[in-house]
Amino acid sequence: GESVGLHLPTLSVQEGDNSIINCAYSNSASDYFIWYKQESGKGPQFIIDIRSNMDKRQGQRVTVLLNKTVKHLSLQIAATQPGDSAVYFCAERLTGANSKLTFGKGITLSVRP
Amino acid sequence: DTGVSQDPRHKITKRGQNVTFRCDPISEHNRLYWYRQTLGQGPEFLTYFQNEAQLEKSRLLSDRFSAERPKGSFSTLEIQRTEQGDSAMYLCASSFGGTNEKLFFGSGTQLSVL
């Protein structure tokens, strides 16, 4: 079936380094993607989004890249900080105004001091 | 605080009991979603409302689950005759809808069924 998934369950990075979190999606009909960050005991927090007619979008310290050819989404975090430690989820939405977000499994980002 | 609010934060109940959770969305948002999340997994869609109309329900939502949004503002999610498998975090989210629909989540209600 269609699914959204993440390649690695955990990622450990040194404080100050750049982090790259990858996500594979299988539904070519998806037209909108979001990255969420979830800290312990909290709900998912919106980080950045991208539509399928774009291949790159930048925010503050974060960049999302979309490769529709291989159905791959990545989140890049520049100068990773301890506060970035959390579980990260990618989510996709199928084309259509009434379509819901479908989440992949989370990847834990751990920042070493 | 103008974010999505959920109550209670934690609920411990015995198997077979009924539980009800409440969600207060961001006031301007017309869409309200319920998701369920288990440890290490992403949130799974349960149901959503456009104003007071419930537009879609997941197959995950058995007959023991019911959700309401009577006035298009707050919503309740009730689980009847709880089972141990119902133990999870129940997340509520709201949005404006639209093409680039960003969901804003509450902190969730953690349900433990003993």
What would your notes on this structure say?
The complex is a heterodimer of chains A (113) and B (114). With 113 residues, chain A is an all-beta fold. Helix content of chain A is 0%, strand content 57%. Chain A has no helices and eleven strands. In chain A, the strands form two sheets. In chain A, strands 2, 4, 5, 9, 10 and 11 form a six-stranded mixed sheet that branches. A five-stranded antiparallel sheet of chain A has the order 1-3-8-7-6, with no helix packed on it. Chain A is globular. The relative contact order of chain A is 0.33. With 114 residues, chain B is mainly β. In chain B, 0% of the residues lie in helices and 49% in strands. Chain B is built from no helices and eleven strands. Chain B has strands at 5-7, 10-13, 19-24, 31-37, 44-50, 53-57, 65-68, 75-79, 88-95, 104-105, 109-113. In chain B, strands 2, 4, 5, 6, 9, 10 and 11 form a seven-stranded mixed sheet that branches. A four-stranded antiparallel sheet of chain B has the order 1-3-8-7, with no helix packed on it. In chain B, a hairpin with an 8-residue loop joins β9 and β10. The model of chain B has no long low-confidence stretch (mean pLDDT 93). The chains are: A mainly beta (113), B mainly beta (114). Chain A binds chain B through residues 4, 32, 34, 36, 41-46, 49, 51, 89, 91, 93, 97-98, 100-106, and chain B through 4, 33, 35, 40-45, 48, 50, 55-56, 91, 93, 97-108.
